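The following block was generated as part of the benchmark described in Methods. Ligand: zinc ion.
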Amino acid sequence: MAKIDFPEEVKLLIAHLKRLPGVGPKSAERIAVWLIGKDGDFSNDLAKAMMLSAEMIQACEVCGFFESSGIGCRLCADTQRDAAVICVVEQPTDVLPLERTGAFKGGYHCLGGRIAPLDDITPEDLRIASLVERIADGCVSEVILGVGSDVEGEATANYLSDLLAGKFPDLEITRLAQGLPAGGGLDNADELTLYRALDGRRRL
Ligand SMILES: [Zn+2]
């Protein structure tokens, strides 16, 4: 007796869904079955949105943020921004929470990741050469390292700091402050957070 499984079309859909980040085999099956249960319009709209994004969106050659074909990069086109300050972040998605604060008016540079030897990600895999080029070409006076505070983020910040300080002695290199979360008391903070909060204290 033949072993019964999903039809081939559904197996193909599950195989594709499994390749999405954060989607395991069980979730892929669940999504596939959910999609089959939806009307054709939904699948059509989803497929169109995916095709449109894939065709129209790419990384801006200068800053690495999302750029729409025909429209260009809205960050680089914004002449109101302070070209003297660049905030370096890991991913283009990191720009959005910083923008929502409304506190930063400079430019950005998205590295496309961070140095992670265990995942085979070396400095050459990141958009570091274009950052150096940008600083060398322009009127950049400060680079803010807005990379993560975990081990790989620290390694990336240290690498960039050494590299940029060596190449541009007059460049101010800063790091986003790390410390206590807003609204949190000391009793809830872990040791590393407290250590960094003490280390990064500022005069009032
Ligand atoms: Zn750009």
